[in-house]
Amino acid sequence: MKCLQFLCVSTGHDKQYHTLIECEKYSDLEGPDGSPETDLSTGNRIVALPTASSVVVPVTAIMRKVILYPRVDDPHLCTVIDFQRSSLPRVLHKVIVPFYPVVDDMILVSGSDPEPWLAKVLTVQSRTKMVRVHYYVSNGDNLYIAEPNHRLGVDCVHWDTILANGEGTNGKGTLIKGKYCLS
Length: 183
What we know:
By secondary structure, this protein is an all-beta fold. The protein is built from one helix and 14 strands. Strands 8, 9, 10, 11, 12, 13 and 14 form a seven-stranded antiparallel sheet that branches. The protein has a four-stranded antiparallel sheet with strand order 3-4-7-6, with no helix packed on it. It is elongated. The mean pLDDT is 78.
């Protein structure tokens, strides 16, 4: 329901006031089997925009606030975003969280080798979406150290070539594959 206005009504014979709300009632969009339609990417319900009619109900009919987000594919439908729901829906698709590099991040960079290159972010240029990095090379036994030749080890790369954040735990000045330490 979309709240239009609150009403305070007194019935003449009992001298008591009753709080009501005038609202537009939204209907769940139903699938062929009669179950509510849901958005495939979020799992949230889909509702049809109401006609011009409105209803008056007691304020106790309000359960919680939701957000109605207009759908791009059909302007007469909205996705219900129920941010106060006790359990969130299972997502059917993989959620991609954007990664923005910061100085001292260890990152995996796409290069000419099949294996991604490991690098430490030295500087970030947000306007051009470039980072200056120092590559790390294998020192045997899956241990990595900063490329000793500074000329070969330092490079500028675009954010689009960053594959992931190289997370891990600190060691003694060496980088363990997937884990790092900066001394």
